[in-house]
Amino acid sequence: MPSWIRAVILPLSGLLLSLPAAADVKARSCNEVRQAYGAKGFSLTDIPYQEIAGEHLRICPQEYTCCTTEMEDKLSQQSKLEFENLVEETSHFVRTTFVSRHKKFDEFFRELLENAEKSLNDMFVRTYGMLYMQNSEVFQDLFTELKRYYTGGNVNLEDMLNDFWARLLERMFQLINPQYHFSEDYLECVSKYTDQLKPFGDVPRKLKIQVTRAFIAARTFVQGLTVGREVANRVSKVSPTPGCIRALMKMLYCPYCRGLPTVRPCNNYCLNVMKGCLANQADLDTEWNLFIDAMLLVAERLEGPFNIESVMDPIDVKISEAIMNMQENSMQVSAKVFQGCGQPKPAPALRSARSAPENFNPRFRPYNPEERPTTAAGTSLDRLRTVWRTMQHSVTDIKEKLKLSKKVWSTLPYTICKDERVTAGTSNEEECWNGHSKARYLPEIMNDGLTNQINNPEVEVDITRPDTFIRQQIMALRVMTNKLKNAYNGNDVNFQDTSDESSGSGSGSGCMDDVCPTEFEFVTTEAPAVDPDRREEESSAAAAQGSYSLLSWSLVCMVLALQRLYR
C-alpha cells in the first residue's frame, strides 16, 4: 500500500474510532443527577459534571459513577433519615388511634364520675338538706376513692365498698336509735355486724359486683390504651443498624451514583430491604395481636354487661325492695347488735318526737322505675346518660380502630413499599432498580421476623441478637394482655394473690358473667323486741314511726342516686 494512502486511511480510522467514544462521553453526563441532588438541598460543589471512576465507593457498585465519597456519605445519611420518617409516617395511624382515643375515653369517664357525684349531691341537698350535709363526707370519700382507683391509685375496691357500707350502717344505726348514745367503740362493733346481719339485704353484694367489674374494666381499658400508645410511639422511632443503613443507601440512592436518579427500586427488592431492617418490629406482631384481641374483649364488656343503662332499671327495683326489707327488720337488726355489742347508754337529752315535713308520706312505697325524677336531679340523670352514651359511641369507635391496627408491624414493609414515592410499584418490574442496574429483581421475598432473615440477600442481620428494646415492648404488651384478660373476667390483677392458685384475694368478683357465689344472700333474722316494756314502746311508737319513715325516705334517695353511679 502506497504511503500516501496509508497516511490518509490511518487518520480517518482514528476519527471513526473516536466517534462512539464521544457519544459515550455525552451519555455519561451527570446533569440529571446534579439536578436531583440539588433538589435534596445538597451543595452542587460535591458532584462532578460527568461520570468518574468509582473505585472510591464503599456501598454502591464501583463502576463509573456520578458520586464522590462525600456524596455517598451524605446520601447514606439521607437514606437513614428518610427511612426513619417513612416508618413514623406509616405507623402514624396506629399511634394517633391510641393517643386520641385514650384522651377521649379518659375525658368521658372522668366527666361521668364528676356528673355522678354532682347529681348525687344535688339530689341529697334538695331532698334531705342539713341531715345529708352533716353526713356528706361518707359519699364524698366514696367518690374520692373511686376516682383514685381509676387514676391508678392503690385502692382495693372490695375493701373500699365494704368500708362505705359499714360507715353508712353506723350513721343509719344512730338515726334509727336516736334514744341511745353510741361511742366510737360501739359504732365500730356495729360495723362488724354488717356481713352477718346484712341490713341492706343483697344490695351491697350486687353493687359490689357491678362497681368492681365496671371500674376494673374501665381502668384496665384506659391503661391498655396508654400501653398501646407508649409501645407504638417507641417502636415507630427506629434506629437502623449499620447493615440496614448500607442496604437503604444501596436501594434508595445508588441509582443516583449510576446516573439513574429517576429510576425507583423494584417492589420485591424494597420488601427484602424493609423486612431485614424491620425484622425485630415484625416479631412484635404476635404479642401485639394478642393485646389487641384482649382490648376488644374488654371493650365488649364496656358495651355489654358493664353498660350503666342496661342495669339501671332492675337495680332501682332491687334497691327499693332492699330498703323496705331493712325498714321491716330494723328492730331485729338492732336487737342482734345489742346482743352482740351490749346495751347502749341512753342519750342524755332525748327529744320525744321529731318533726316531719307537712307533705311527707309516712308510709314508704316501692320505687317505680317508670316514675323518673322531673326535678334538678332528673336533669342531672339525663346529663349522666348523655355522657355515658357518648362514651359508648367512643368505645365503638375505638373497637373499629383497634381492629384496623392488628398485624400493623408485620405489614409495615408492605405498607412502605406500596408508597409510590419509594418504589416503582408491582406493575413496573422490568424498569426498576434491582440494586445493580435497571432490571427485574430476581431473589425471592423473605418471610417475616428475625429468624427468617438469615438468608436475606440485601441486609446483613444477626439473628442471634434480638433487639433488647423491642423485647422490652413485647414484655410490656404481655403484662398488659394478662391484665386485660383478668379484667374481662372481673378480676383486678393489682390485688390478686401472687400464689400459683387461680383464685385471688382481689377486689373483683372473679365470677363469670352472672354466675357468682351466694355467700352474701340475705337472711332475715327473727329476734325479740329490744325493750320488753310495752308502755315505753307504745308511748314512743308514733314518734319512732315518723322519725324512721323520714330516715327511710332519705335512704331511698341516697341509694337511688348512688346506684346510678355504680352502673
From TrEMBL:
Pfam families: Glypican. It comes from the Eukaryota. It is found in: Cell membrane. Residues 348-357 have a biased composition (Low complexity). Residues 1-23 form the signal peptide. Belongs to the glypican family. Cell surface proteoglycan. This is Glypican-6 isoform X1. It comes from Microtus ochrogaster (Prairie vole). The gene is Gpc6.
